[in-house]
Design brief:
This protein has helices spanning 2-7, 17-40, 43-50, 53-64, 71-87, 97-120, 125-146, 154-180, 183-188, 192-203, 211-237. With 238 residues, the protein is mainly α. The protein has one domain (2-237).
Length: 238
């Protein structure tokens, strides 16, 4: 919100109000679901489940926007999903209510990006960002007042500011990317976050990665890169 107070970019608050409101509610829901998931599920598994989102998004884009994938694109998307299931190690994976939360969050994130694409024709990225920032600030500020836990170390405030800045920058870049490209192509890059989740899990939380999980992650990355190459070639022909 500080960005909008300081820079005061031009925004149209009346245009597509219902869609903007729904986008914001989806993002708040995603944040809550992932926060609960991170507390109860292994970090890498949360990322693996959450990034089923490109599958949902490809279906939405194909049926509603006629943004059809090539046969190769569909094959690579399915192979990526199978690799995700393999990396979860179903024989060891305990299915609880918490394990469904990142999956629901992935579906909500796909819907969020789909609505972002609908709004992209207006070329008003700061309007889309403003609604998400405003409603998110109001919701989590009220929640914090109800269940406030004092922050004991000043360094944590710096961490919160950094998270806010990176979140703002990430959302802005995604909005621009969706505006200038197709949904499936943009979403395929998000598979890289599975790698970062595995790295943070290992180096920060000292949780090792099993051979199956490592193989699954590598396969997801390979199929994702092939997908990007395939869809990039299709875009260049247009």
């Amino acid at each position: 919100m500080l960005f909008f107070l300081i820079k005061k970019p031009p925004i149209n608050l009346k245009k597509n109000f219902k869609i903007q409101l729904l986008r914001s509610v989806l993002m708040i829901s995603i944040t809550v679901l992932l926060f609960i998931s991170f507390k109860n599920v292994d970090l890498t598994n949360v990322y693996v489940l959450f990034f089923s989102a490109p599958i949902f998004l490809a279906l939405m884009a194909s049926f509603f926007l006629k943004d059809n994938l090539s046969k190769t694109g569909w094959l690579l998307t399915i192979l990526s999903f199978v690799s995700i299931l393999y990396s979860l190690e179903p024989e060891k994976f305990a299915f609880t209510i918490y394990t469904f939360m990142p999956l629901i969050a992935g579906l909500a994130y796909a819907a969020y990006q789909f609505l972002t694409k609908l709004l992209s024709k207006d070329r008003e990225p700061f309007t889309a960002l403003f609604y998400t920032a405003l409603l998110g600030t109001l919701f989590f500020s009220i929640y914090s007042l109800i269940d406030w836990t004092p922050i004991s170390q000043p360094i944590f405030w710096l961490g919160l500011v950094l998270i806010g800045f990176l979140g703002f920058l990430g959302h802005l870049l995604i909005i621009y990317a969706i505006q200038f490209s197709n949904l499936s192509f943009v979403s395929s890059f998000q598979y890289s976050q599975i790698i970062w989740g595995a790295i943070f899990n290992y180096f920060i939380f000292n949780i090792s990665i099993s051979d199956k999980k490592l193989i699954g992650i590598i396969l997801v990355v390979i199929f994702g890169l092939l997908f990007i190459k395939t869809e990039m070639g299709k875009i260049e022909k247009i």
